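Most newcomers find our protein records easier to grasp once they have seen one. Read left to right, the backbone structure tokens trace the chain's path through space. Once this layout is familiar, the rest of the handout is easier to follow. The record below serves as our worked example for the rest of this section:


***
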Amino acid sequence: MEPSGARSAIAPGRGDKIGRICAEIRKILAPDNRRVTADMENSYVVIGGGTGSFSLLSGLRHHPVDLSSIVTMMDSGGNSGVMRDTYGVLPPGDLRRCLIALSDESQMLRDILSYRFEEPPLTGHNLGNLFFLALTLQSGSEKLAIESIGKMLKIKGRVIPVTWDHSHLTAEIEGGEVIQGEGNIDVRGNENPALPPRDLSRLIERVYLAPPASANPDALKAIESAQVVILAPGDLYTSTLPNLLVGGVPEAIQKAEAPFIYVLNLMTKHGETDGYTASRHIEEIKRYAGRTPDAVLIHDGSVPDDLLTRYDDEHAQPVEVDFDKMRALGVSVTWRRDIIAADSLVRHDPTRTAAALVELVDTLLKPDF
């Protein structure tokens, strides 16, 4: 019986939902007696950020492949940036998305860890990020926190931070402007009345980490033992390339005997890759990885006009595919498939993209290819 004057913390109508959540938690804590019934075939390493890797991993987890996701740790915007600055932990947002993508648990649990609060005092905070923070502070180890969430979600594969070092992405712009922090570079193309307008005709000249960061040994081992290394789509300078700026990663990719595949972006990004063709993306990857992708997976077909109009305000355009220049850079295989999602956003369809990747990898690994 409640003390006099006390009120129930459970709002009317929420009891059933909380009951379902508790049932999910009991399932999580129950012993996992399942056995793996199918042998893993090829080992795939996917390198990227939270958005592009999420699409690939969500589809690939349904195939009999051994998955390792190497994730950028340079995020400094939004909720992840707040946690990074306040508590000194690595930004959890991209890690969380990759863990959820590999999860074999129910959609309800995936939704719970993706839940974002909309009201004070937690406005903008993500429950999964808070959970990661709590586990890190309790255990004193970000690695243990990642492993714990992975076990809870029964993920298929591994999620590996590209580095344990705390470092910030920095961009030099043509003309001498320097922008510090991934979050600031990421919103360079956004209009902000509080700031003077930027000359976006001046492109990003180079990116680097300050201070320099060294690779997580587990990331290097994963690349070394992989049968294929895949560079996920995503914002080129703020999501994809930061992984290649970490000391040891380019060298590992260069030494790897595994095929190196790039999943080409569907759209340009205002303030980062305005006017970039496919070959320009490849040039930048070669510049920072020290190796040209052996194969590039490309969407085969146009983007529906009704979807393109949604991107007018963002000044984004479909990436032009210039095959001759790509071949001149050393790309051996351009694999064209219909891999766009049939929804309100121009994005990679997880199922189609995964199927195309598996088909491409199987072809590249044939002895007579």
Summary: The beta strands are 43-48, 66-71, 158-161, 168-173, 178-180, 204-210, 228-231, 260-263, 295-299, 333-337. The CA atoms of residues 119 and 125 lie 10 Å apart. The two ends are 73 Å apart (CA to CA).
